Amino acid sequence: MESSQDAINMDKGHDVREGAYVLGVDSGSLTAKAVIMNRDREIVAHSVVQLEIVSLEAVKEAVNNVLSSAGLDMSDIAYVVATGYGRRRYDFADKTVTEIGCHAKGAHYLLPEVRTVIDIGGQDSKVIAVDEEGNPTHFAMNDRCAAGTGRFLEVMASALRVPLEAIGEMSLKARQKLTISSICTVFAETEVISLVAEGHSKEDILGALHASIASRIAGLVARVGLREPVMMTGGVAKNVGAVRAIEGELGVSITVARDPQIVGALGAALFALDFVEGMSGLKLR
Q1: What is the pairing mode between strands 116-120 and 230-233?
Q2: In what residue span(s) does the ATPase BadF/BadG/BcrA/BcrD type domain sit (predicted)?
Q3: Number of C-beta neighbours around residue 240 at 10 A
Q4: Which pairing describes strands 116-120 and 95-96: parallel, antiparallel, or unpaired?
């Protein structure tokens, strides 16, 4: 379990420019997200771009998309904060902040009472304890194995020849309780193929896969401690089967944001606002 000092980890940052808006960018392993906010702390526009590979060009596509949606250009942006895997490589960012800090801040903006954030992304999963001001106090993270992440679900959907967007609903129709014991994606895929060969339904297999995700998340929660309310962020939060399985495992109700994929980018934009208006002593005009 890591401390709050490790969670924020800001770099020094650049000077503030003229502009009435801020931009938060979150580059994950499967998607790039961007959020623009105004001086009233309102979300003006957001963008999500699917990634084949993590690249500067793909992230800039997300930025260009969100600028276009808002009818703005970079001259309107006072400050840019980046988070995610490639955050230190993006030359357009003025400051970088860890995903832990950004997801905590974004979740707190959406649900001020939140005390536990569960984030499941493309390649990692994390559980974050949040205080009343939206600061991460401590967290636990699994970034050593893709099991139980978005990539894990993509591989399993492919193995079952089921559309990724359908697996959550299908898992809720499971009738027989099966077990997926492997913690490695490759071995879990082999188990899935064996279960198919044994004649088990796809619904039952998907039920077992989602239960295995819930079990791994429960392990992270045990390291951090569970406090309600709980919010789930990241792309896997769009999977109703994963949410229901985790709720059942933890015995709590989970809030899912309307756009759970953008919570990290939202937090980055909020950090940009804090820097412009607080640390710099300036107000956006």
Answers
A1: parallel
A2: 23-272
A3: 15
A4: unpaired
Taking the C-alpha atoms of 98, 136, 217 and 149 in order, what is their torsion angle to the nearest 10 degrees? -20
Answer yes or no: is pLDDT of 9 > 70. Answer: no
In angstroms, how far is the first alpha carbon of the chain from the final one? 41
Map 75-133 to HEC letters.
Answer: HHEEEEEEEECCHHHCCCCCEECCHHHHHHHHHHHHCCCCCEEEEECCCCEEEEEECCC
Q: Is the pTM of this model over 0.85?
A: yes
Handedness of CA 99, 105, 106, 108 (dihedral sign): positive
CATH 3.40.50.300 describes domain 21-98+262-279? no
Give the span between the Cα atoms of 30 and 54, in whole angstroms.
Answer: 8
- Identical fold at 21-98+262-279 and 112-256? yes
Q: How large is the average pLDDT for residues 270-280?
A: 84
User: In angstroms, what CA-CA distances link 91 with 56, 131, 202?
Assistant: 9, 32, 45
For residues 61 and 66, give the distance between their C-alpha atoms in angstroms, rounded to a whole number.
9
State which amino acid sits at residue 41: R
Query: Would you list the domain boundaries of the chain?
Result: 21-98+262-279, 112-256
What is 112-256's CATH number, 3.90.550.10, 1.10.1040.50, 3.30.420.40, 1.10.287.370? 3.30.420.40
In this prediction, residues 86-104 reach a mean pLDDT of 86
Q: Report pLDDT digits (tens) over 220-241.
A: 999 999 999 999 999 999 999 9
Percent of the chain with pLDDT over 90: 69
Cβ–Cβ < 8 Å for 125, 142: yes
Indicate the DSSP class of residue 233.
Answer: E
Q: How many C-beta neighbours within 10 Å does residue 241 have?
A: 26
